[in-house]
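Batch job 17 of 40 flagged for manual review because the log was empty.
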Amino acid sequence: MLLTLSLSNVVGAVIPVIIHKFKIDPAVASGPFITTINDALGLIIYFSIATHLLHLL
């Protein structure tokens, strides 16, 4: 949970800066990107932890 929240904060801070460098309005464009990246990262982190702990079952 800590890893997922930490990466979400980093993504939420970095994506608007990157979008601003492409001369696009960050307020409009960053919402879908941040949500998609956070969901994908969360799933990857949770499933990788579950895969590593699977041998304990």
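Reviewer: the log was empty due to a logging misconfiguration, but the result itself is present. The helical segments are 2-21, 26-53. Unflagging and moving on to job 18.
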